[in-house]
Amino acid sequence: MIVRSTSPSLSVPLLCVALAGCGDAVATTDTLDPGTSTSSTTAEPTTAVTPTTSTTTGEETTDSGGMSASESTTTTTSTTTGPDTDTAVSATETTSTSTTDTSTSSTTSTSTTDTSTSTTDSTSTTTGGVEVPETCLSADFPVKVPLCGDGGPACTTLRDEVVSANMMFRNDMPAIALDGDCEPVVLYSEAVNGYHGFYGERLGPGMWVATPTPMVVATGSLASDPDNDAVFAMVDDGAFGTSLWRRFDGQWAQEGALVGMNHVRAHQLARDGVGALHVGHVNSDFAVQHEVFDGAWSKEQVITDAEIHVRLALDAADAPRLTSWATVDATWKLHYFAPPGVTEVVAPLGSNVIERQHHDLALVGAEATPWVLLARKQADQIHHDIILAHRTGPATWALETLAAENAPADKTCDDPPPQAGVTCDFDYQTYYPLALAAGQDEVRALYVAIRRQGTLVSACEQNPLPFCYWNTQVEERSSELRVAWPGSQPDEHQVAAVDVFTDRAAARLDTAGQIHLAFYDDPAGVGLDPLVRYVMIGGE
Q1: Element counts in the chain: helices (H) and strands (E)
Q2: What is the distance between the alpha carbons of residues 22 and 20, in angstroms, rounded to a whole number?
Q3: What pLDDT sits at residue 97?
Q4: Beta bridge partners of 48
Q5: Which of 455, 514, 432 is nearest to 145 (CA)?
């Protein structure tokens, strides 16, 4: 029996947050409290652990590949079997895929095997003409080379690889970091028969090795310590427990845990210049917390009634900057925080129902100007605009529309069918903000445009009164991952990859100006059981 792990422990929100139904739970009351409180706790003792497969009772809101899905229930246990099953894998999973060197991103072959042997971190390589920078050490940042797009080289797919080909139910999105050799590592989970974490390392062109984590991972965030060849992970166990781990020389050791009941997602952990770790997240009451670990935890509360996907960035002086959607006056607004200062509104959503809550934050230039990528609803409350915002002064933000969904051009089948046997053709595009990549003095916005075309046919039932509904007869999907920049027009945006089917991604920029993306990809288009995919975008 296969049991998908979901979250009865998260209260159902008053305002629905999802692409279809309710996904990650959020608080929706109207009180805004920017008050600050502080506390500190003693760090938990460090414990070295050898990776094993975990067994857990999971409680977590389940998003599959970013595409939300509602599922009932579950208390579960896990067993260990061979590859390509719906249970956790106790041995190391090695995935081999082809790597593309053109502007397309199709994968020609995939094979998955299991091996019980461990592997070491890969070194920098030159792959198919793709020059990988020699180091991604702390001194190499911020990135000074021109980024692709705008006046730089044209954007294209340099790598397109499968981290895990297992089609599994998953939560939210994977986390990504770059090691000292600028090679990616990815933390991801499987939410089937419990929550199971995996740590993926790239060994070479199209070659990934994934090992189970000793800790339960429903979702998590990564921060690299490249100078010491270590990686930190802040993980959410799916039952409000959040713990901090360090990976060094192939072994995980727990460094501590957050006090109380909390949630953690990707892009919520950052390491500062003196080695302290900053976490921006929400607690079980959906209040945004900024916590710092430097041997002990210190905490300040930023805002209440927030959505779960907080974003965190540090400026050159290690001062934290955070963004989060929060409800005020029964409507959603995206807020910006520079603790301990007051909060600012970046932009209102224009609705009391949030469906595309994923956004990204980046700090650019000597002044650490905050830039934010978000989706905002159009007046019809159905279509969305992709917005790029930046701060121009105290509580002042400039917003520009990068791309707008086109309501007049859409062909949809929104009206219920009058009778059985009726057909309706549809053809429309939806846009999703993915990530920001920031160099020393420039920024790139990545978003995906997914086109759906096909035909629906109606059916009717008596239950107890007659009602009719649409069924999909045929559907084709295509997509473009586009790169935009400040002041750009939609027809200037560059298509960096195709056939990307997700609504969120985690990104890192290396010292050659190449953008590394990790995401759960749903090639079947059914909203369930995505694979784990990695794409590197850069100049030709």
Answers
A1: 0, 37
A2: 7
A3: 52
A4: 253
A5: 514
Q: For residues 55 and 40, is the Cβ–Cβ distance under 8 A? A: no
pLDDT tens, 92-135?
A: 556 555 444 433 333 333 333 333 333 333 333 444 467 678 78
What is the DSSP secondary structure assignment for residue 139, as one 8-state letter? G
Q: Take residue 223 and report the two structure tokens written for it.
A: 């921060």
Q: Are 165 and 531 in contact (CB under 8 A)?
A: yes
Question: Which residues on neighbouring strands pair with residue 53, listed in sequence order?
Answer: none
Rounded CA-CA distance 304/282 in Å is 9
Give 244-264 pLDDT, tens digit per residue: 999 999 999 999 999 999 999
- Long-range Cβ contacts of 139-146 (<8 Å, 24+ apart): 140/511, 141/511, 142/438, 142/439, 142/440, 143/439, 143/440, 143/509, 143/510, 143/511, 143/513, 144/439, 144/440, 145/439, 145/511, 145/512, 145/513, 146/439, 146/442, 146/513, 146/539
Please indicate whether residue 133 or residue 50 has the higher confidence score (pLDDT): 133
Tokens representing 279 are 């976490």
* Rounded-to-integer distance, Cα 524 and Cα 530, Å: 8
- Residue 495 burial (C-beta neighbours within 10 Å; 0-12, 13-18, 19+): middle
Q: What is the rounded distance in angstroms from the CA atom of residue 407 to the CA atom of residue 414?
A: 12
Global pTM reads 0.80
Q: What angle do CA 143, 148, 154 make, to 5 degrees?
A: 160
Share of the chain above pLDDT 70, in %: 75
Q: Cis peptide before 142, with omega less than 30 degrees from 0?
A: yes
Q: What pLDDT does residue 5 have?
A: 61
Strand order of the β-sheet with 251-257 is 47-49, 251-257, 242-248, 230-236, 219-225
Only one residue has tokens 């959603």, namely 332
Type of residue at 271: R
Residue 478, pLDDT above cutoff 80: yes
DSSP string, 54-111: ---------EETTEE-----------B--SSSSSB-SSEEEEEE----SS------EE
Asked if the model's pLDDT at residue 16 lies above 50, the reply is: no
Residue pair 268/359 in contact (Cβ under 8 Å)? The answer is no
Gyration radius from the chain CA atoms: 22
